[in-house]
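Lest this sound abstract, we let one protein speak, letters for residues, whole numbers for local backbone shapes, and leave readers to judge:
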Amino acid sequence: MDAQAGTPADRETLRHQVQRGPCLAHSGGDGLFQPEAREARHRARRGGRRALEEAHLASAQKKARREGPVIVFIDESGLSERPTRVRTWAPRGQTPVIQFHFNWKQLSMIAGVSFTNAYFRLHEGSIKGPQIVEFLR
């Protein structure tokens, strides 16, 4: 470090400017209290809205039992009939030729898994919102 910007460093000046020892001042206290045991108190209780929450939840539970809902985990994935590039061979001096048709199709699959069954459907092209709704029905 230089004493001033733009001047060469002087080791003697640096030696006297660097402080040795701790640089922290002694604090009078940190304001924290020592832990102490107190007498037991009443435990905290919930507010007065619990009855309203239970009534709302109960009506949702009754509707669920009436309609018999099923939890289904769904996933969608795309498939392609496009051939993969693979290593091939040919006699020396001849270029290998891989023959395949360039009219591959793209397929999409949607699948769902529930506690009791597994479902899936294939669609040409990509899957849009209406196909997902149809699948869930």
Q: What stands out?
A: DSSP finds three helices and three strands in the chain. Helices lie at 11-17, 50-67, 129-136. The first helix runs from residue 11 to 17. The two ends are 75 Å apart (CA to CA).
